[in-house]
Specification:
Helix content: 55-70%
Number of strands: 3
Structural class: mainly alpha
Largest sheet: 3 strands, parallel
CATH superfamily: Bacterial extracellular solute-binding protein, family 7
Order of helices and strands: HEHEHEHHHHH
Radius of gyration: 16 Å
CATH architecture: 3-Layer(aba) Sandwich
Number of helices: 8
CATH class: Alpha Beta
Shape: globular
Length: about 160
């Protein structure tokens, strides 16, 4: 997907917060376990999936789909995270993501990085989901705004490396 319009009307396997993001971007969220995604992609039940890049190898989804990159800010606002979670799982995911990337590229799949202008459009489209997350967190006594700010700071910091 190169533009926001490319996502319109597509059925995307997604659950929870990612389903809200898919809907905000104009796609149709389809809830299903990760283990059913390969066959769903293969049969055209869904046209894409929302998940970490490592599923392209670990769940073999690169064989039946192409990785359509989302802006880093969309990827970053997936779950409520803690410092410990990021350190432990982040290192593991970095290794797994690198393997998933190499695997999908070995199958001649294309990684598309949106322009700054297109990235801004996607960010604007998901802003209501982020705002809803912040408000829901606040109502539950959590600092959702602080979490989002932390994620943006980390994305900005590590996107430059």
């Amino acid at each position: 997907m190169r533009t926001l319009e490319d996502l319109e009307k597509l059925k995307i396997r997604s659950t929870g917060l990612s389903a809200k993001i898919v809907q905000a971007l104009g796609g149709g969220p389809v809830a299903m376990p990760q283990g059913q995604t390969y066959e769903a992609l293969q049969k055209g039940i869904v046209e894409g999936t929302f998940g970490p890049i490592e599923v392209l190898k670990g769940w073999r989804q690169a064989e039946v789909s192409k990785w359509n990159s989302l802006p880093d800010d969309v990827k970053g606002v997936i779950e409520d995270v803690s410092s410990e979670w990021m350190a432990v799982h982040g290192e593991s995911w970095d290794v797994d993501d690198e393997e998933g990337l190499k695997f999908t590229l070995s199958l001649k799949n294309e990684i598309i990085n949106p322009s700054a202008e297109e990235n801004a459009r996607w960010k604007k489209a998901v802003q209501p989901v982020i705002d809803d997350y912040i408000e829901t967190s606040r109502k539950n006594g959590l600092d959702g705004k602080g979490y989002v700010e932390l994620l943006y700071a980390l994305i900005n910091r590590y996107a430059k490396e």
